Amino acid sequence: MGTDREFDIVLYGATGFVGKLTAAYLARSGADARIALAGRSEDRVLAVREWLGEAAQSWPIITADASDPSSLDAMAAQTRVVVTTVGPYAKYGLPLVAACAAAGTDYADLTGEPTFVRESIDLYHKQAVDTGARVVHSCGFDSVPSDLTVFALYRRVEQDGVGLLTDTNFVVRRMAGGLSGGTAASFVELMDAASDDPEVRRLINDPYSLTPDHAAEPQLGAQPDMRWRRGREIAPELDGYWVAPFAMAPVNTRIVRRSNALLGYAYGRRLEYGEQLSMGSSVVAPVVSALFAAGNRATMELGSRYFNRLPRTLVDRVLPKPGSGPSDRTRERGHYTVETYTTTTTGARYRATMSQKGDPGYKATSVLLGESALALAFDRDRLSDLRGVLTPAAAMGDALLARFPAAEVLLETTRLA
């Protein structure tokens, strides 16, 4: 990709809730970056720029709309990196992926939609490889903590020379925050598509649905997403705890497995990866864990078959609206801490711990997306040599690990007894 572009970063979707938060983060952390704001309505984007204050007043405004591919082509041709918060991505995202793949422009988004990622791979991976574009999906809370904790473990195990990763489990230990309107909209789009198409249901249930080469994947069984079990089955450090399925496991696990494949199975061909949510250690924890697992399983199995039979007005009334979000106080009080445990082929055990302050789906996500944009634009010596439709770890794992401390994203690895 050429370096003679007018802008370093264009933020598309700047008027949405997470878009505004990402713009604010870039205004604080972007230093001398050449940044432009983009959206459908020039007046609304101008209002966002005014809201951002002095740091952003020189940022140009670009009018672009997913329904007008020529406007996306023009936008992609002007910048090194396009960052987009415009979802649901299955509905609005592919024209922008097409524009970036054609222009050789790097791209980052917040999608949690595996069907969108699969379609992006099938349609534009080869073209992006040819033009030198990095199309990086899932650069927010979905799926950076999952992808980067496993990548950090891989780097630590590689450094210590103790084999390759095998049984690896991500556990959400603590989390406070609200459901993102964009995440809710993505879930609705996914369930609608699955209700109409058995192939989408097959894709959702396939642990290697995002792999570059399905036939090359190891045969490790079903690796189900909806398990509940004792914490000690994962690691002795979790003895006394119970865990239930993490709601975003069907997305995050596929991203991690794709990272491993894109990196030439650097993590190991015996990597088994799952995600769980800690339900605590109280006397009711096993019951709560079982009920939570059953509810998640029913939501996925029944929703993927019958969701389109629900009255849309009822669904819209219950779920938060895209572009909506919690109050400043709620965002500031949010937080998360995740732990990823692994055992290597030589029996060594490790834990990666990652945490951030701020609502995971909003404030924390805006930091992760902003840092992804800055890494793609400025840390080119730390990026991988890969091109095409990538994952955060495969595209910029080392760059993000280096950036996290200054962004107050805490990630450390520990060798366990």
From TrEMBL:
GO terms for biological process: glycolipid biosynthetic process. InterPro entries: NAD(P)-bd_dom_sf, Saccharopine_DH-like_oxidrdct, Sacchrp_dh_NADP-bd. GO terms for cellular component: plasma membrane. Residues 9-135 form the Saccharopine dehydrogenase NADP binding domain. It comes from the Bacteria. Belongs to the saccharopine dehydrogenase family. Enoyl reductase subfamily. This is Enoyl reductase.
